[in-house]
Design a protein that fits this description.
transmembrane; about 70 residues; mainly alpha; 2 helices; transmembrane helix; membrane
Length: about 70
Amino acid sequence: MPLDKFVLILVIVVFAAGLTIWLGSMIVAGLHAPLPLTLLIPAALVLYVVWRVIAQRLSSHEDDHYDQTPR
């Protein structure tokens, strides 16, 4: 990957992360939500992603390397 493309992607990712944090802080400040609620939403999203990854790994026949071993 060329260096200029890498730097462009890096700048865009850092800008998007900063914008996300700023926007999230503005939303939380406007809602006056309690702290457990603000922590519950990211935790639920992380648990959902972990659940989907585990479910995909268990149901995928392409990732099952033990089925191809001779018995």
